Amino acid sequence: MAWGETSVWIDGTENAPLYQDLLDDAAARPARDAERKKIIRPNEMPWEMSRQGLLKHLINEQMNTRMETVDAYMQIVPPGSKSGKHRHLAEECLYVLEGRGYDLHQDCDVEITDEYFWKPQEEVKRFEYEAGDVVYVPPNTIHQHFNADPDRPLRLISTINRIFKQCGLNDLEQIENAPEYDPSLTLTPEVIRGFLRGER
């Protein structure tokens, strides 16, 4: 043959229907999607006692919903308390449902090669907010939420793009745990009501 590299590229005997698998997946998708939830009821939204704090997952890729690109949870920060502190590569948007508080944000200098290299900048910025506000967290920013009210809970809706993770960029790091974090505690409506009242 005319190409000098033929002796190299023509090697191999393994066959696989990879393109056909893509066609089959595309053909089966409408039926598969019809089985996925477009409405999620409160009793279908799992609670989590997480290192970041008290979460109620609204949309998550493990919840069999039609949402392909976004994860969302409601976070409850008890009166006078704070969330955990973490950093992730994806940007985040939070809607303040109830209460008042503030965020501390610390930007990082980042280099992405085969590994992530990040270094926190010196400045820590404070952003105050109240119910009805939207809080933006830039990519790769160390951040933490604080409830500024000693008597009432702070409730936030967090949304984040899961495409970063699907692209191999799930650079999520927990730096500090929420004060309420107790992996042995199972969250129930009764337990959550105790946190809302500041009893726990």
Automatic annotation (TrEMBL):
Keyword Transmembrane part of the UniProt annotation: no
Name of the protein in question: Cupin domain protein
Annotated coiled-coil segments of the chain: none
Superkingdom of the organism of origin: Bacteria
Subcellular location(s) per record: Endoplasmic reticulum lumen
Taxonomic source organism: Roseivivax jejudonensis
Family matches, as Pfam families: Auxin_BP
Entry GO MF terms: auxin binding
Alphabetical keyword list: Auxin signaling pathway, Receptor
Keyword Transferase in annotation: no
GO biological process: auxin-activated signaling pathway
Xref: InterPro entries: Auxin-bd, RmlC-like_jellyroll, RmlC_Cupin_sf
